Predict the 3D structure of the following.
Amino acid sequence: FSSKNSSYSFFSCCLALFIITLSDLECDYINARSCCSKLNKWVVPEVIGHAVVTVLMLISLHWFIFLLNLPVATWNIYRYIMVPSGNMGVFDPTEIHNRGQLKSHMKEAMIKLGFHLLCFFMYLYRLVSKIAPKQQRDCLPAIISSIPLV
Amino acid sequence: MSAPAGLPPRPAAAAAAFSPGGPGSSLEAAAPGSGAPRCQNGPMQSQMQFPSGYGSHLPNYSAPSGHYSQVPNKAAASHLDNQYRASYYPGYYSAPAQNVMTSVGSNVLNAQESHQLYNNTPPHSGGSSDRPVQGAVSSASYLHVSAQQSYSAFDNHYSTSVSSSVASQGFPLNSDHYAMPVVSGAMYPNVSYPPVAAGVVYGQTFTSQSLPAVGQFKETNAFSSQSTSVPHSLQQHVPVGYNTTLSTVSSAQAVQDNLSRNLTGSVPKVNNQINTGGIDSSQPVHSVSQNVPFTKPGAGTSAASAVMSSVRSPAPSLSSKPPSSPSVTQSPELALQEALDSSSTTSSASPVLNNYDALEGGGYPETRSVTSSPVPSPSVLQTSKASKPFGYGYPALQPGYQNATPPTPVQPSNPGHHSGFQHYAQQYPGVSQLSSSLGGLSLQHSQQPESLRPVNLTHDRNILPVSSVPAPVPNLNSDLRKLNCSPDSFRCTLTNIPQTQALLNKAKLPLGLLLHPFRDLTQLPVITSSTIVRCRSCRTYINPFVSFIDQRRWKCNLCYRVNDVPEEFMYNPLTRSYGEPHKRPEVQNSTVEFIASSDYMLRPPQPAVYLFVLDVSHNAVEAGYLTILCQSLLENLDKLPGDSRTRIGFITFDSTVQFYNLQEGLSQPQMLIVSDIDDIFLPTPDSLLVNLHESKELIKDLLNALPNMFTNTRETHSALGPALQAAFKLMSPTGGRISVFQTQLPSLGAGLLHSREDPNQRSSTKVVQHLGPATDFYKKLALDCSGQQTAVDLFLLSSQYSDLASLACMSKYSAGCIYYYPSFHRSHNPAQAEKLQKDLKRYLTRKIGFEAVMRIRCTKGLSIHTFHGNFFVRSTDLLSLANVNPDAGFAVQMSIEESLTDTSLVCFQTALLYTSSKGERRIRVHTLCLPVVSSLSDVYAGADVQAVVCLLANMAVDRSVSSSLADARDALVNAVVDSLAAYMSTASNLQQSMLIAPNSLKLFPLYILALLKQKAFRTGTSTRLDDRVYAMCQMKSQPLVHLMKMIHPNLYRIDKLTDESTIHVNDRVVPQPPLQKLSAEKLTREGAFLMDCGSIFYLWIGKNCDNNFIKDVLGYPNYASVPQKMTQLPEVDAPSSERTRSFISWLRDSRPLSPVLQVIKDENPAKTDFFQHLIEDRTEAAFSYYEFLLNIQQQICK
């Protein structure tokens, strides 16, 4: 679980990066070209990472979590596959300003960030509840306080 | 003030064609040609003179002037299709106001008069309204003469109006009313017209003003040259009206009906019924009965003025005034006085006048008063012209609107319905009359209701206008309208902006702008000043629509921030006076160009750099384009835009890439071959791009040698990608323009492509694939180029599939342009060869702007969300244009983010910052101002159908690439269905069984059908993929005028051109044949037809065409001897030949690319092309227009 937690914090960071970069673009701090090349670099790691985690869930027979992750992972893969051949990646600098794409990317990143944060705390809870019975109850606050370091 | 007192300035006004500015217009004399636009100038503009300092910055423009209208008449013709009326009309229109202005300027300067105007006493008002009437009458009557066709087209309506109460003066005004939509394009200051003629009218109308009414009216009419006196014209026309109307009686009855209803006290109806409705409900009958007699005596003006006065004044004055001509003679004086007052307020330096807030504040109570007492007093309206820039047109209109709908249910279905329409028609003229008589240009009063007039699409077969479709005029106060940007440069799909997104959604029409920012303008105010005044928060450039709060502060019209007026701005170089910031040229013109300081440069302005990348593979040599290109280049080498730093270079490629060392000092050009195409490098980076002037001889040598250098090549491969990479490397230090000539699918190195087209799928009705690029190589390259300020222009001359969808990316995102010549061959396809030649000439010599960026700003609350055109969107609203050319058009879609309830105007500003070919950094700024409306019917009234269709075409292209062609087609059909359904549901009383469209949208289904049958979107007909993609590229990058011709070509019958309804352009007589429906039913074997498709003219000759025509115009004895591939008309000395040629050359002059003429006989293979453009006919794969309408109707009913 701790590995999963760390992977989720990785996703969250990744999405936070997405959001920050996109809002930079929205505010005109960077231009579309650099924004998209920056973001496209992270699309593949995100897709792979999420797929791996999802598969791991399946392997470790955590059905509920697996099902929770499956739609998001599927969407990620679908999005990656459906990029038209002429585009420069999921984020295309020539299209990002058109038809509200920037906004929809932003929205998507926000939703996923929320999802990952939710997952993160859920796993954390489960991690804690799994560890806690084995150890002494009074360790719990210490564990919780150390969570941000995980 | 007495009439004589008003006289002295008039001679000046008579000369106003040249210097309407009156005093202080000395500069005008230096540029006589620039006089014309003055006539249109609003009151404030009339003061505008540019000191020579301004003019000196105009190397590219013919004359310095406050206006950018085309002064040479020829040029004038070039931008408007309806030049004639368009060009004359405004002159007459503005004449009264103008004259008044000039006289005012020297006489009265009382800024406070405006208040007094509100409290006008009846006689005054009568007088004041009289003044403008003249303008209206003269213009109207003139139009009668000039616009016979439009007149006849509207017979019905005329007749009703004639039969109606407003008779005598209603008549000419009606004509004016109807001609108006045709003319409306003319409202913009850039429309030019023969200065002398306008001047004459000017003088006449004005001087005659002090004369007794009858004489004066005669004189104005005399100008119109058909009928010398009013009675004649009236009596001529009245019977016509009666004879030609279908249902005069019924309409008359309708009138009666209305009148009786009026009597019973339905006040708003009365308003419209009688001109402009300044009359109480009890009065209309009086006024009617009084006016009618006047029709006969022919004292048109007196009657008019009588009506005007009656309109304005309370009942007693009504009865006393009209009959006496003395009273009329008196009224002009008063008119003058009045006019002086009102105009003095405008021309005075009072800061209040430009202050929208103050005006707005003032405007609203007025509005309320109008609505509360449903009698909009014309005098109030008039004063409002002087003092209230906006908020006015609408209130006055309201009754018209209210009136427009209620009568409808009364109408029975079939013929009765018609009479219903006439009924409206007859109501509106009153409004139009008032507005036109207001001496301003407030045509919207009539235009709005007219544009809302319901048209039964399935019944009315002739919906095409006589001449080309004009752009609707925004419903603004005349002052603002005069200042507003030309529709040629800047158009909005909805000239009435809906207040909220909800309202916009309800209207189901797209909201967007169509821009042609770098259009060739013959006149453009160029401003040099060390500080360019801009809003501190939103960076908007100061423009005519800002408001000056006081002398030292101005309020931004986009973000409403209050800014300081810089010290320098207080000085007006125009009048050399201090303290008149609102008279600066920036504030007087909505299109201006600034010379930018070094703040606007990231690096020193780049030189003009041109690089030609030429395909020299076997295929290319076989096609023979090199000869044409080299020839063209040799001819135009000196005309290439640039300065002494201009540089030029050449790269050729087949399976290798060849560079040419043209360094000065070499005895002959040196070819350097790089065969390592996987890792391309520049052999001698310094000497490949050379100074054009220093190495001219070498360049000429190369161009002479080039066509023959590769004649025996056996290389069939094409390494386009590597050649482009090399070109990019070569250009990246400076930026500039790369022109790529490609004749086949690139087959080697980076960016190689494979054939994706399946010829069997060409006529598939299902899926059209491969509309998008196959690789991102060209896109990336384009973005790299764009980043280095380099644009790539693509000339694709291929006979087989070349994957334009992929190749086009290199131009699309680098702000280049795309030319495509399918099945090009120098000798086998002379039409294409000629086209290439002409295109190249234009391409090489047209203006060019380098390292450009364009930003579109709009009033807070609106936001731009999608851009169409060739460019790269660098950040939310910044378009990066490596090059900008005068033939590039752009479109943007907008949404309304915040409700616009607290504003009555919205503005859009386009700023294009570019480096001219002379190395100057310049900013061209266009500002468009539009009113905000809150009702759905107003939104429909302001719909600009051409702009809507062009924007939809752009959206459909996006849709077909991102989704599928079928989706895009469905979306187009749905656009019509939804908007018409929404319209019909607003006018719920309309019969659901009929397909009704507002007049403003009556062409919408036709245009959409034309779009569906356009190469880009058609299915079922065999269309090559490249052709389709090219059509799509054009839709994205063509300006509106060209795009409209492409979508819906103009068809004229030219075998019977007569001298009737001709126009004079540069002492040539140009006949004006009426537009024909695009239907084979219009083609007769006895005729000859010219189809103007924008880039090509088809001249179709019927089998039994008159031999005289064939002999005179084509130069052949009979039909059989006319050759198949004829592309030129011989110069035969016969009137019919002269007419035809002058008509065709006039059409050609109106566009930058001169189109190729193709003569089509019955058995010609090009015949199919011609017939494909007859979009109203049914084809094997598509609906006819009527079927399409039925289909729409069905979908609406569903």
Notes: The interface with chain A takes residues 772-776, 779-780, 783, 787, 805-806, 809, 812-813, 865-867, 872-876, 878, 958, 962 of chain B (CB under 8 Å). Confidence is low (pLDDT under 50) at residues 1-448 of chain B.
